[in-house]
């Protein structure tokens, strides 16, 4: 039941005679499949400010980089027709993907390479997003939503926003 790939997980697997990386990957595949099923059933919807993506894409190339599993991220983009993104990347299934979660900038750096970009703004709703942006040499926009409205950050983002629509104005005024 543990969601982390750590010493305790590996020890429990070894005690049961199960290969830790194989079990962890199988668990993540099942988790990704369940997430896609919930999305297909309409149990999760997009935020209302998603319409800002098209306006942002008119000003700069956009990438979606998420700690969610890559199959889930790809499904979201296809299912909701999020065509504004020039690059889409969720984390790989398995221990390597788990280790490369933000705040590790691995997938952000991959996006920068794919877009042939040297800078930009990474939008996220967690402190790990702000840290990953900094480690990748990006500015950070901390997005406050209902689920994180009262969360205290122990890191300083470049800017705090309450909607993706606010980012449109910032991109227009930033060289």
How would you describe what is shown here?
The relative contact order is 0.12. The protein starts with 6 loop residues before the first helix and ends with a helix. It is α/β, with parallel strands linked by helices. The chain has a three-stranded parallel sheet, sandwiched between helices. The protein has a two-stranded parallel sheet with strand order 1-2. Strand 3 (121-124), helix 7 (127-135) and strand 4 (139-143) form a beta-alpha-beta unit. Helices cover 46% and strands 15% of the residues. It has helices at 7-16, 20-40, 52-57, 70-79, 95-99, 106-115, 127-135, 164-173; strands spanning 62-69, 85-91, 121-124, 139-143, 159-161.
**Topology order in helix (H) and strand (E) letters:** HHHEHEHHEHEEH
User: Based on CA inertia axes, which overall geometry fits?
Assistant: globular
How is the quaternary structure best described?
A: single chain
The SS-based structural class is alpha/beta
* Main beta-sheet annotation: 3 strands, parallel
Number of separate strands = 5
Radius of gyration: 17 Å
Number of helices: 8
Strand content: 15-25%
Q: What is the helix content?
A: 40-55%
Strand order within the widest beta sheet: 3-4-5
Mean pLDDT level: 94
Regions with little confidence, pLDDT below 50 for 5+ residues: none
Topology:
Layout (H helix, E strand, L loop, with lengths): L6 H10 L3 H21 L11 H6 L4 E8 H10 L5 E7 L3 H5 L6 H10 L5 E4 L2 H9 L3 E5 L15 E3 L2 H10 L2
Parallel strand pairs: 1-2, 3-4, 4-5
Helix pairs in contact: 2-4
């Amino acid at each position: 039941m543990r969601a982390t790939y750590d010493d305790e997980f590996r020890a429990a697997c070894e005690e049961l005679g199960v290969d830790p990386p194989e079990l962890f990957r199988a668990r993540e595949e099942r988790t990704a499949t369940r997430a896609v099923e919930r999305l297909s059933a309409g149990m999760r919807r997009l935020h209302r400010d998603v319409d800002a993506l098209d306006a942002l894409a008119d000003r700069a190339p956009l990438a979606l980089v998420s700690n969610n599993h890559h199959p889930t991220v790809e499904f979201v983009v296809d299912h909701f027709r999020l065509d504004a993104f020039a690059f889409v990347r969720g984390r790989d299934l398995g221990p390597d993907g788990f280790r490369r979660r933000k705040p590790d900038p691995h997938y952000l750096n991959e996006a920068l390479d794919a877009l042939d970009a040297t800078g930009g703004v990474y939008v996220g709703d967690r402190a790990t997003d702000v840290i990953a942006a900094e480690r990748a040499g990006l500015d950070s926009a901390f997005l406050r939503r209902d689920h994180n409205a009262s969360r205290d950050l122990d890191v300083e983002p470049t800017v705090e926003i309450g909607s993706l629509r606010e980012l449109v104005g910032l991109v227009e005024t930033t060289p």
